[in-house]
Amino acid sequence: xxxxxxxxxxxxxxxxxxxxxxxxxxxxxxxxxxxxxxxxxxxxxxxxxxxxxxxxxxxxxxxxxxxxxxxxxxxxxxxxxxxxxxxxxxxxxxxxxxxxxxxxxxxxxxxxxxxxxxxxxxxxxxxxxxxxxxxxxxxxxxxxxxxxxxxxxxxxxxxxxxxxxxxxxxxxxxxxxxxxxxxxxxxxxxxxxxxxxxxxxx
Length: 202
Description:
The protein is α+β, with helices and mostly antiparallel strands. It contains eight helices and four strands; from the N terminus they run E-H-E-H-E-E-H-H-H-H-H-H.
């Protein structure tokens, strides 16, 4: 059985929990207390030398990094709807996985962490980066229902959590109608799994 090393409030961990739920896969969780430094223990660092969550252990196959885990799960347990086999489709998905790891992290994820977890970072920069990322996302979704391949893929799962929670970082979501509609489409998928403040309370 898949074992997920998990922190409940982490958006990156939620990507994995959400996808496991969408795939209807059984798994067990091992909570990792970041405040107590459990991600920096020698045992944990043998699984992920970066000392971060999430990590999965799939009967001895250990994968770290949320985007990498999504790819692994899609290829092993999903189908080509979630992660295509053709070069064009793979490229279309991969660009959004990179966007999730870079622009969505530097903006929405950090903006949320400053407010919610008192992260030591510049809030003005985080909000500015968030707005830039959301504008790109909104522009794309103004003409597309999904991020890649005209259907839900792991690209959507990778980008979704921090887009859905950026309001916790004091970022106004009202200008981004296309993003808000896309968020609602994801939350309507069969097997959708939320977390604290996700979906956003009315």
